[in-house]
Amino acid sequence: MNFRTLDLNLLRVFDAVMAEGSITRAAERLAMTQPAVSNALKRLRDSVGEDLLTRAARGVAPTAFGEALWPQVRSALGQLRTALEPGDFDPTVDARVFRLTMADAMAAFLLPALMARFAALGARCQIEVRPLLDRDPRELLAHGDIDVALGHFPEVLAALAAQGRVAPLRHRRLGEGRYVCVMRAGHPLAGAPLTLAAFCAAEHVLVSFSGRPHGFVDQALAAQQLGRRVVLTVNQFFTAAQVVARSDLLTVLPEGFLPLTGLEERLVMRELPVEPGTVYADAIWHVRHDRSAAHQWLLAQFAEVSAAAATTA
Q1: Measured between alpha carbons, how far is 196 from 70 in angstroms, rounded to an integer?
Q2: CA-to-CA distance for 259 and 280, rounded, in angstroms?
Q3: Structural contact between residues 253 and 179, judged by C-beta atoms closer than 8 angstroms
Q4: Residues with Cβ < 8 Å from 260, sequence gap 6 or more?
Q5: The dihedral sign for the CA sequence 58, 60, 65, 68
Q6: Where are the alpha helices (DSSP H) in the chain?
Q7: pLDDT tens digits for 22-62?
Q8: pTM of the model as a whole
Q9: Average pLDDT over residues 169-192
């Protein structure tokens, strides 16, 4: 393939077809005819010398080569869009795709209100959410795999503060909360305030996005030369809530998440007998988005939704 002669518009078509999984829907999104999209895909295949897509039961599916190429194409197009994007953004016209990462608790809190707001505004934007695999999304942001990371990232914010003006990421505080100990109704410890000794002696479910069996509660305990017995480690808060509702295990959840589980009548909260510190919700993004009107609009929606939730809490 000769990159110098490649028509970069073909990559836009490829990206749209991959995102939609359908030539017909991609044509509608690009304001092109279906034959024009098919022809563009044929030209791209001829240019790269390999098939990128195959027919599927419902639309099209990527080949192994197409699957490997798409993230690179999407990242490059996103960076170009940010650099060249006009100052104005109209969410009712511009069908922008925003890629986010967050924990399931943050998603349960944010996404219903965000989608309702999009509907009320008539926004044509799409949201794609990736699971949060650890509390350090810097690599995903740097590579353009996601546009915004949402959640509690204390170590990342500390690193950005140390870097000062040369930091490659920006952040915006959306709110704060706290964690509580959660157990099933009828648990032997549910009838009285939870003591530190009882907390340490109990068996626990730990929510760890990375899978490491050690979290911020364990750090707070270690500072007092104490520990607890973690018998199960999961990567979702909802999974932890399901487990403790059916066992004598304890877990630690964001206080505001409990009403969103659908298990509130089966679970009870108790104050943690150890202080893990304030939990903040932040939006973090790469500096390449600073000039993007679309990105600034999205951040404003996050802020509005978070502020509305805080006033009704």
Answers
A1: 51
A2: 19
A3: yes
A4: 105, 108, 109
A5: negative
A6: 9-20, 23-30, 34-48, 64-84, 104-121, 138-142, 154-163, 196-201, 216-222, 237-245, 293-312
A7: 899 888 888 889 999 999 999 999 888 889 998 887 788 88
A8: 0.72
A9: 94
